[in-house]
């Protein structure tokens, strides 16, 4: 494969609430996932236009009802894909796609399994897959059963949807599928779902099942804490390739003017710059001070962003650690710490989302559905008006107008003087 592909699966526990949905979309965009498989979306056909505009890329829907089921597949806007064939379940339980990404064709399957023991559902899914290529399969979702009671479940009764599980194990052998996380962690324990009741129950219900021949291409499969859900994110990364990236164009972030530490240090920076440049031409002094301001602002912004990213990473580690503590030693204190850490992480994601809106230079934000694609396109448009070509054309236009005015003034003056002389 030509480049890295990242897949994420996540049970959102209902995404009709606009703020919750936008927060999730912002998180997925910021982490740059290529393909996102979501379950329990609670989407309806009238929601499609809003969701597509907010996401900004391709979404394949499988609608359930306003308060249950629903599956969808989100494709990163910048990722070039071609969908050759699709199958949408009538009741919002699965999506099957033959999809071409980076010149490779995958059979992509997003699943939200019933929470009752119904092996007939997996028989139906297998029958539908029979008409697809199924040479390279990536299947993911919430299956609502555990493969191993000893390794994939703690707390509660020692049972699962046994008939559904056994049926699916036989189907996995037919399509040569492997549970990739278990394959890479034969005796590991990690849970993707936690109950909200006492006593605590924790299960690994969310899986990536992939074709056996894909295993050498798998770089990593790991978990990340969820956002306002009792499930966590499951992430699969295939075929890593290092991509070179340029430095980009720096812009001053005027929110720094509200940072008292920055303002204080900047005052000192300007004073030091004026002392350093000495009694030169004012134009030279001005250019040197601007250079110092830019250099200091870039370094300060970079360090501040690094600290924010470090704090995000620390919060994710803290949340994972606290969740593990709750698995084995539940307590009110640990639960309170986990709640506070989740709130802080949500505040960070909201801060990132506000930054996108502020950079768009929009003067208003609707109280209802906020069209994220609108803000992103507006930001792109504003950026296009700030490039050198546009500035030069504007200056040339103004110079042309002034030139015509000067010519007309000179002609009138010449005629006036000529009349006086005669």
TrEMBL record:
GO molecular function, one term: phosphoric diester hydrolase activity
InterPro entries xrefs: AP_endonuc_1 (IPR004808), Endo/exonu/phosph_ase_sf (IPR036691), Endo/exonuclease/phosphatase (IPR005135)
Identification of the protein by name: exodeoxyribonuclease III
Family: Belongs to the DNA repair enzymes AP/ExoA family.
Species assigned in the record: Holothuria leucospilota
Cofactor, how bound (note): Probably binds two magnesium or manganese ions per subunit.
Record site: Interaction with DNA substrate: 231
Catalytic class of the enzyme: hydrolase
